[in-house]
Write a structure and sequence with these properties.
Length: 233
């Protein structure tokens, strides 16, 4: 007797269901039975595809970084590498706002009912940094940034933007120092801190905002929550 075929639609359905539960009800509602019911399959499917709930949690981490990578893929190189780098920052923030619960899972901020992430899972998403590091290198090569280790500069910027996005998701940034104001000034400060001139940094950050509205306009118009109906942003 030939082995029973596994339905390829079930795996993404389970990930989407888990993301939907997280988005609507939080980690306390994330159980094998509940996820399977929302995905329209048996609880055994969670074990078949993910070897249990811990595996599904890891899959959500991978999905979160896949969505971030999809946003980053929209950043095309231009003659202004500083504007490109600022656009990466805007894409990062947009991903956090569009996928707040997956964002928490990606970086271990959500306990997920006691499920934990391995070191390998925590480091999984570093592939998304490749384009950012290369962009920093272009900024240095163009004479906009001082000579430095591009990876170190990229990690400094990642830490700063990640911190702001986390504060924004936690509703800590309110008027008169709301998230939009803080983010725009942060982008300029990061570019100047890396060696750019204030006027040039300001112009590039402004240009990145215009590009952002053009490239990401459909996503910008959505409310800031998981879009679980699609596999990519």
């Amino acid at each position: 007797m030939s082995p029973r075929r596994v339905d390829p639609r079930v795996r993404p359905a389970l990930i989407r269901a888990a993301a939907l539960i997280l988005s609507a009800e939080g980690p306390g509602a994330l159980t094998t039975r509940r996820v399977a019911r929302e995905a329209g399959c048996s609880t055994m499917a969670v074990y078949t595809h993910f070897d249990g709930m811990p595996g599904l949690v890891c899959a959500m981490v991978h999905e979160g970084f896949a969505r971030l990578h999809a946003y980053f893929a929209r950043v095309a190189p231009t003659p202004d590498p500083v504007a490109d780098l600022a656009l990466f920052g805007r894409a990062y923030r947009l991903n956090a706002r569009a996928n707040p619960h997956l964002y928490a899972v990606m970086f271990g901020a959500a306990s997920l009912g006691g499920f934990s992430l391995s070191e390998e899972d925590r480091q999984h998403g570093r592939y998304t940094m490749v384009g950012v590091i290369e962009c920093v290198g272009r900024c240095v090569a163009a004479g906009r940034f001082r000579e430095a280790d591009s990876a170190v500069v990229a990690h400094h910027m990642w830490s700063a933007v990640h911190g702001l996005a986390s504060l924004e998701l936690g509703a800590y940034l309110v008027e008169p120092y709301d998230a939009d104001l803080c983010f725009e000034t942060q982008l300029c400060a990061l570019m100047v801190g890396a060696g750019d001139l204030p006027g040039a940094a300001s112009r590039s950050v402004t240009a990145s905002g215009e590009t952002f509205r053009s490239v990401f306009s459909p996503a910008v118009s959505r409310t800031p929550r998981e879009d679980v109906a699609h596999n990519s942003p």
